Amino acid sequence: MIDQDDISALNDLYYSLRRHAIKNNAINVMSYLAKCGVDFVHIGSYEVKGDGKTSMETLNFLLAHGWDINHREKVGLTGRYEIPFMWHCVEDYDMVAWCLEHGAALKPRRQEPLSKSVITIAQLECPQILEVVARSGSVATFELLRAKGAPLGWRVLHGAVETATYGPTSKSLESEKDSAAAQKSRASHEERMAMVRHLLDIVKIDVNAPDQPAGSNIPGDYNGTPICYVAGTPMLDTDTRELTWLLLDRGADPTPALEIARQNQYPRFAEDVKAWQEQNKTTQKCCVQ
Questions:
Q1: I need a surface site. Which of 11, 45, 90, 158 has the fewest CB within 10 A?
Q2: pLDDT for the residue 12
Q3: pLDDT at 11
Q4: How far apart are CA 216 and CA 224, in angstroms?
Q5: Domain residues of the chain, as ranges?
């Protein structure tokens, strides 16, 4: 009779081989493991994603062997669950489209319906897909998912504003000039700014929308209204005037953000607000709320 410890060790070996086979797109090894009865249905999204080089051939093999594209693997003994596979693909429009064509859900499993009165722990652990796209995906990907009925969540505009503060610094652009890195950095920043404008002007998200229900006090990086995410940026060397002025032009109230900027030791934000107010003395609409 085979010892139970030997069976456990053999299973560990099989699943280690599965992980390495997926990472290296080793179809022959995966085929052998499937014949040995290794589970290809319940595979964690991080295992499938690997280092981001998982081939389409590998993904199709997994689907053909029952892979549940919406599976969320439990993370150790934490009680938390991984984000779904499609959440890893938001920077690639074609991959998101492929996921949708192959059954990817727009809402994560093991998560309560969105509510205006509460954000649950499960929702904090796995943000809505549109919140993830707003931070790092394209407008086209955002609209693809929105058209399918993906929910907005609480922090779509907030996340877009935050990542728009991660643009290149004046010093880095000057030192790199027209290098490939500088061009890539500028292009990335332009894409993030395009997302902010899209959310404000097309999706019509309230420029002063809160990031959590009234009366809540979620710890961590919940700063308040979208403009507060400019004031609270960790990227203190980045020129955020264009972003700040865009939000002010759309009616953002800078009052709470000014205090955050003071605490964050980010005087540039207050200078940008003052410059905008000077330029818009006759039409200023900012108000204290």
A1: 11
A2: 85
A3: 80
A4: 11
A5: 154-289
The Cα–Cα gap between 207 and 158 comes to: 9
Please list the ranges in the chain whose pLDDT falls under 50: 286-289
**CA–CA gap between residue 268 and residue 240 (Å, rounded):** 8
Residues 64-83: b if buried by 16+ CB within 10 A, e if exposed: ebebbbbbbbeeeeeebbbb
Q: Provide the token pair at 280.
A: 């818009």
Query: Which of 235, 265, 233, 262 lies closest to 247 in space, CA to CA?
Result: 233
Each residue's pLDDT tens digit, 76-120: 888 899 999 999 999 999 999 999 999 999 999 999 999 999 999
Domain 154-289 class, CATH top level: mainly alpha
- Comparing CA positions, the residue from 221, 199, 202 lying closest to residue 212 is 221
Residues in the chain: 289
- Residues 213, 122: Cα–Cα separation, whole Å: 16
236 with 265: CB under 8 angstroms?
Answer: yes
Q: Roughly how many angstroms between the first and final C-alpha of the chain, as a whole number?
A: 74
Among candidate residues 135, 138, 167, the one with its CA nearest the CA of residue 153:
135
CB-CB contact of 243 with 161 (8 Å): yes
Report how far apart, in Å, the C-alpha atoms of 41 and of each of 44, 48, 70 are: 9, 11, 10
Residue 170: what pLDDT? Answer: 61
Q: What is the pLDDT of residue 136?
A: 97
